[in-house]
Specification:
This protein is of the alpha+beta class and 430 residues long. It folds into three domains: 45 residues, no CATH class; 145 residues, no CATH class; 210 residues, Orthogonal Bundle (MetI-like fold), CATH 1.10.3720. Helix content is 63%, strand content 7%. α4 runs antiparallel to α5 and α4 packs antiparallel against α6. The two termini are 31 Å apart.
Length: 430
């Protein structure tokens, strides 16, 4: 096989493009399975961490063992003491400054690792002492190389003092029997910051929070939102297909005065931003008393310039012999359209329908303006329920966005073959 560098570069670029295109969906799916605390964390992580949960008063809340939480707080306070009282800011620069920060970071990682799974794993005392020794224990010797002797000696004394403090608090968290209750602290919910004692049976370890999807579904009337979106999308798609076929056939195969001029004016309307005509359209529909009805959501979009243009390009590529044969057989305009043009244009029609369905399903601004009550809102407007003044519930928003996207993915994969054929047959250059 001949080595072709150009092909390899093209394949690599295509692979990179595919990863870039699919990454937002992967990130959305990952976020939908995280806890609120994990979503707001600055740590970049695709696969959610293993988290601890306890059921209290029929509520499932995220908790953690109180001991590691206290140890992490002590480490943070100790880091602040050293950096502000012992070491001046100019002495934290260079090699020692980097090692100083890295030592405390490694200590935090080790504390989380020790208490990641089992409640109070065997030998955690020795593990903690070893973790402190391997991280903070190396700072005094390093300080002796980069700091004055007085400061280095004081640093060594403070590290030993921290180790003694840790030893003092450990007896408070001893568990004699494996089934004894142990203290946990709430990390979220109405009891955030409170401490209770629970048994091992009450503790649950979860990595993927599938409950987020159930919570998101129950947070708003999503069944009604789905129904509204289906009605709006199906009706708009059907109307667009019918009007596009009729108009495209007229522009492609019929002769009438000013045909090209009318077609150019029609194309020019695609350049007008929808936001510009939003207020006039609202006034018009308000006078028709169509606000907060399906008429406002469907009727203005029963004809689409893009669909007309797309189908016209395809109709013009059909051989004239087919139309002549249909005329000889006695077919009129509508007969030719029904028995000749439509059967040969199924991929193009499906493509227009797919584009229309996706655009209508994803519509936000128009339904947001034209609907006033939840029973008329489509799915995309309903997602706004997770964005409030107090903040955005990102994990629930991503969960709702995921199940709102699934119908589009299913429809696209079903119609993918026809979609590709429709693009190829339309006569458009991509």
């Amino acid at each position: 096989m001949k080595f072709n560098p150009a092909k390899i570069v093209i394949y690599l670029l295509l692979a990179a493009g595919a990863v870039a295109m699919i990454f937002p969906f992967v990130w959305m799916l990952s976020t939908s399975l995280k806890s609120p605390l994990e979503v707001l964390s600055f740590q970049f992580q695709i696969i959610p961490e293993l988290k601890k949960y306890a059921t209290v008063d029929d509520r499932v809340e995220q908790v953690d063992f109180q001991l590691p939480v206290r140890l992490l707080d002590m480490a943070a306070d100790f880091e602040g003491e050293l950096s502000t009282r012992i070491l001046e800011s100019d002495r934290l620069e260079g090699v020692f400054g980097i090692e100083f920060t890295q030592a405390f970071q490694e200590l935090r990682v080790e504390i989380r690792r020790i208490f990641r799974r089992e409640p109070y794993p065997a030998g955690y005392r020795d593990d903690l002492q070893a973790a402190i020794e391997s991280t903070l224990g190396r700072l005094p010797a390093l300080a002796g190389e980069h700091l004055p002797p007085v400061v280095a000696g004081e640093l060594g004394g403070r590290v030993e003092e921290f180790q003694a403090r840790v030893k003092e608090i450990l007896p408070d968290y001893e568990v004699d029997e494996i089934n004894d209750e142990f203290p946990v602290i709430f990390l979220a919910g109405p009891q955030r910051g409170e401490t209770i004692r629970i048994s091992p049976e009450e503790l649950r370890f979860r990595r993927f929070l599938w409950d987020n999807y159930l919570k998101a579904w129950r947070s708003a009337p999503f069944a009604r939102y789905f129904l509204n979106s289906i009605i709006m999308s199906v009706a708009t798609t059907a109307g667009t297909i019918i009007t596009s076929i009729l108009a495209a056939y007229a522009f492609a195969r019929m002769k009438f005065r000013y045909k090209e001029l009318i077609f150019l004016v029609l194309l020019a309307t695609m350049m007008v931003p929808k936001q510009v005509i939003l207020i006039p359209n609202y006034v018009l529909l308000s006078r028709l008393d169509w606000i907060n009805t399906f008429y406002a959501l469907i009727v203005p979009f029963l004809a689409a310039v893009f669909g007309i243009y797309f189908m016209r390009q395809h109709f013009e590529t059909l051989p004239q012999d087919l139309f002549d044969a249909a005329s000889i057989d006695g077919c009129g305009r509508l007969g030719t359209l029904r028995h000749v043009v439509v059967p040969l244009s199924k991929p193009v029609i499906i493509t227009v329908g797919l584009f229309t369905f996706i655009a209508t399903w994803d519509a936000l601004l128009w339904p947001l303006v034209m609907t006033n009550t939840p029973d008329m809102r489509p799915l995309q407007v309903g997602l706004a329920v997770f964005s409030q003044e107090a903040g955005t519930e990102w994990e629930l928003l991503m969960a709702a966005s995921t199940f709102s996207l699934l119908p589009l993915l299913v429809i696209f994969f079903i119609a993918q073959k026809h979609f590709i054929q429709g693009i190829a047959r339309s006569g458009m250059k991509t």
